[in-house]
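Narrative of activities, Objective 1.

The group set out to show that a structural description can be obtained from nothing but a protein's sequence at a throughput compatible with the screening campaign. Below is one input-output pair from the validation batch, recorded exactly as produced.
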Amino acid sequence: MTNTTQHDTILVTGATGNVGRQVTIQLAEAGLPVRAMTRRPESASMPEGVEVVRGDLADVAGLDAVLTGAAAVFLMWPFHDADLASEIIGAIARHARRVVLLSSGAVHDHLTPEQHENAVGRSHAVVERLVEASASEWTILRPSTFAANTLWWAPQIRAGDVVRGAFGAVPMVPVHEKDMAEVAVRALTEDGHHGEKYPLTGPQVLTQAEQVSVIGQALGRPVRWLELSREQERERLLSDASFPSSFVDVLLDGYAGMLDRPRPVVTATVEKLTGHPARTLLDWATDHASDFR
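Output recorded for this entry:
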């Protein structure tokens, strides 16, 4: 499977996140030397054999120590802007020959970063360009909506059978973090992925309202969507201390834009690269049923 040597270390940033944890687990299961970077090593709960190190991408001065000896890096961009991108990617390029960037499906090759109306696409486009210019070998993953984003509804679903929100008709193609991680692991460990930009989707286009119904199916009880106006949803999100207020309008603007764009397209990238069909949202919700109970 792998073309790395037994001495190659793979650094995983965001190692305790949904995708990063799966990348770490899958690399460890393959018997590869993996270094998991996290701000809180004491609570990381990583598999046996994983080297867990304290680190933070925002602490640019500390990255050289974390990167020493790493031949490849899985880069999860955790920021809402690209202000630190040049310094972070420069540090990575000084050490690792291979970088796999988890970017965003909001990035479009025919647009310059400044031409992206979507703030997420704009910042990730900047990061992509810096990775392309700096890394000896690079692969970019452009996932559609994370299936794990539905965890935002978990408090409402635990409390009852109704999820309140705006833009319930927005169509998405939720993708399972296990599928994103499998593709990332292949790009990190195999040759032949340099210069590729992989669009990753799940197998089904589902509106937000339909996603809620699928979660109910996994839980064995009906769960339905209750549509709110944009202003009602804005007020609800701003009152939620766990949701960053600076991202509220970005999110709602993004949803409004998605309603105006063509219906999203399902890609076969996951199946082509992993050899199995992309997991469904029902698969994901079944895996995570305990999070909603």
